[in-house]
Amino acid sequence: YGKNTIKFLRLHREGKKHFVKEVEVCAHLRLTSPQEYLEGNNSLVIPTDTIKNIVLVLAKKNGIPSLEEFAIDICNHFMTTFCQVAYVKTYVQEVPWQRLHEDGVPHIHSFICVPDGIRFCEAEQCRNGPLIVFAGIKDLKLMKTTQSGFEGFYKNEHTTLPERHDRILCGELFCKWSYGECKDFDFNCIWKKIRECILEAFAGPPDCGEYSPSYQKTVNSIQMHVLSRVSQVQVIEVVLNNTFYNVVDMKNLGLTNDKEVLVPVEAPYGSCACTLGRKKFFEA
C-alpha cells in the first residue's frame, strides 16, 4: 500500500538565482505482517498521509540533487526508521522545466516547460537486500522525415501494406534502464548522456542521417549505442509507439503531392519493444 501522485515544487535559491524541481512521487510499502489485511489490525500501518508528509519533509531537508538520489533518500528513510517495513518502492518523475534564456542569457528566476521527454526513476529495496535503481525517459516524441523504409517483410493473402524505401519515421519513445549495483554515480550526468545517445542513434549523423530498415532496428540501435557508451547501464528497455503518416491524394484538386502534405494515422498504431542487457548481468 502507499501514496500515489504526491506533487510538489522544490525551490532552491542561491543568492538571486533560483533553481526548481517539480516532481510527482509514488511511495509504496510492504510490511512484515499482513495483519491489517487479514485481521483489521492497523497497529503497524503507517498512514498514507504520513508517507506523503515524510516525502515533503525529505524534499525540504535534503533537496533534490537528482531524482535518483531523492528516491534513494525515501527508501533509506523508511528502511531505517520503521522496523515493520519489509519492502519499499519509490517512483519519481519530473516536470520538464528549463531555464528561460533571453538573447542567449540565462534568466535568474524564469523557466519554460518544454515537452521534450519526461525524466523518471524508480528505487526499491527489501530489508537485508540490495538497493535497486532504475531510471528512464518517457513521452519523448521523435521524427525523421527520410532515411527510413520497410521492405522485404513477410507477405500472404492478408497483406495489403506496400513496401516503402522512403518514409517518415515517427514515434513516442519510452526508455527505462537499470544500474545494477549503485555506487557514487553522477545520476544527472549519466541521464543526460543516455538521452544524447538515444537522439544520436535515432537520427544518425547531422549532415546525412542513417537509414533505418524498420522500427525494430531503430530500437536495437538505440539500445546498443547506450550500452556501448554508458558502462553504468546493465539492462535497457525501449518501447517505440509508432505514428504513421499517409500522403494526401490531391489529384482531384489538380495538384501533385510529392510527400509534402501528410496526415497522421491516429489508430490503430504499431508498437515495438525490446529489452537488452549485458551478458554478465543475465548470467549473474
Automatic annotation (TrEMBL):
Gene3D superfamilies cross-referenced by the UniProt entry: Urate Oxidase
The record's Gene Ontology cellular component field reads: peroxisome
Q: Which residues bind urate per the record?
A: 48-49, 150, 167, 216, 242
Question: In the record, what terms sit under GO molecular function?
Answer: urate oxidase activity
Query: Top-level EC class, please?
Result: oxidoreductase
The record's subcellular locations are: Peroxisome
Which Pfam families would you find in this protein's record?
Uricase (PF01014)
What Enzyme Commission number(s) appear in the record?
Answer: 1.7.3.3
* Pathway the protein takes part in: Purine metabolism; urate degradation; (S)-allantoin from urate: step 1/3
Catalysis performed (reactions): urate + O2 + H2O = 5-hydroxyisourate + H2O2
Which of UniProt's keywords are assigned here?
A: Oxidoreductase, Peroxisome, Purine metabolism
Top-rank taxon of the source lineage equals Eukaryota
Q: Name one GO biological process term.
A: purine nucleobase catabolic process
Give the binding site residues for O2. 48, 242
NCBIfam families attached to this UniProt entry: urate_oxi
Which family does the entry's similarity section mention? Belongs to the uricase family.
- What task does this protein carry out? Catalyzes the oxidation of uric acid to 5-hydroxyisourate, which is further processed to form (S)-allantoin.
Q: Which PANTHER family match?
A: URICASE
Q: What is this protein called?
A: Uricase
